[in-house]
Amino acid sequence: MPLSVDRPRSDLLVMFGASGDLAKKKLFPAIYRLERRGLLGIPVIGVALDDWTDDDLRNHARASIAEQGEEWDDDAFERLAANLRYVSGDYTDPATFEKLRAAAGPAEHPIFHFAIPPSMFATVADGIAGVGLADGARLVIEKPFGRDHDSAVELNDTLHQHFPESAIFRIDHFVGKEALRSLLVTRFANAIVEPLWNRNVVSAVKITMAEAFGVEDRGAFYDSVGAMRDVMQNHLLQMVALLAMEQPVKEDARSLRDEKAKVLEACRPVDPTHFVRGQYDGYLEVPGVRPGSDTETYAAFRLDIDCPRWSGVPFFLRAGKALERTVTEMTIEFKAPPRPMWIPEHSHLPHNSIRIEVKPENFAALTWLRKEPGDEMMPTAVTLAPAPDERADIGPEPYELLIEEAMTGDPTLFAREDSVLESWRVVDRILDEYPEVQRYSQGSWGPRRAADLVRHHGGWPEEPPGEHQ
Ligand code: NDP
Predict the structure, then answer these.
(1) Beta strand 202-210 with 314-320: parallel, antiparallel or unpaired?
(2) Is the separation of the CB atoms in 228 and 299 below 8 Å?
(3) Does 446 sit in the ligand 1 pocket, CB within 6 Å?
(4) Percent of the chain with pLDDT over 90
(5) Measured between alpha carbons, how far is 262 from 260 in angstroms, rounded to an integer?
(6) pLDDT digits (tens, 9 = 90+) for 147-190
(7) 122 lines ligand 1 (CB under 6 A)
(8) Strand partners of residue 438
């Protein structure tokens, strides 16, 4: 979308949390890629506690970018490095923001990326406003946005004291993934998909976000958050919104965000009896995890959406760490057609399904039934999918894309206030009334009870029931 007077391009990027994990793994590589493509070209100020110099920050940025295996372009890095400045200070100390104001120079439309612990979001927003840097600025706020519905309301109120909603970009990097952006084309451009995407023919929808690794060196952070707040309330419900929404009536940010919000508004609060929590064996020994912690590293629940398109179709969501493999996928399963008269019993037959892999690859596959060659008229399943060399997730990295969108002021891919609050409303009850965590072995598919959740709905995709433990 062209920039307008109302949406000037950001002229300064301030990265709070410049010494943190997110900055190292995602933000420095993202801004380097933008610089390489000629899309950055503005001063960047890193802020953190460490007593660093500008050169320390440049060295840190160089090492972070190299560590992520980025293709090296000396000119691009030198341009970026020349624009990098560092401000050290504690966010609870107003002097930090005075230093920041001096470093910001003549910038009129700074963008502030909050790559900091969520407990600091309100303090930093107050600090920015306290030194007069809020006017004309934008905020990129990391997840989780609040700890529950009420704290999200409170955080919105605090931010809105200094920043209008149009200046707040709640980032969910999942929404920047190519597979989710292409979902709208898969759904609405295919005449053989759109008419089938509803309760008439869909029997269940299953969404998985599995990671084959544990919490690694982020024990203290993860232990205070857990799978529900880390990924279910945000990433997985955003996927539900994109997968279940109606076609936006216009090609603009408001229409798309309206449709996503309506889906979340139509979701029933999750019933605690449809909720399973797990914790992998060995989690309690991870440095930073509280002794005896009951934080979940796995969560699964059933979601019901009370709208004409989806009424009665269960959505099953699960996410976990230390599982058998790393995969993020959505499977849409279709009801069985009326039994063909020449088949005596067809309960064991596979059903049609569409599987959309978001990670590690990006493609949609269709499970189709065909006649097994030979005499018998017995249907068997084949999967129709793009060739392996057409599945790579190319294009901009999610953070690269989203930072660029935020700098131009385009909110399309960011979560709006109402969507975030609705997402919390959906899970608020199970954040209070939660079942005990079930142990599961590392490398398994999570706790056995998660299999019970889908027992009468065909099980989890690609996972024989015996694999749960
Ligand atoms: P880290 O704990 O690694 O980094 C936090 C940063 O904040 C550090 O730079 C730290 O500085 C700084 N900081 C903390 N307290 C203060 C303070 N009082 N004054 C000044 N600086 C302070 O966190 P992450 O980078 O992992 O996460 C940051 C945000 O990004 C969180 O909201 C998280 O949920 C989100 N996120 C993280 C992802 C990840 O993969 N890491 C993925 C998606 C979102 P110092 O190091 O000097 O203490």
Answers:
(1) parallel
(2) yes
(3) no
(4) 86
(5) 5
(6) 999 999 999 999 999 999 999 999 999 899 988 989 999 999 99
(7) no
(8) 278
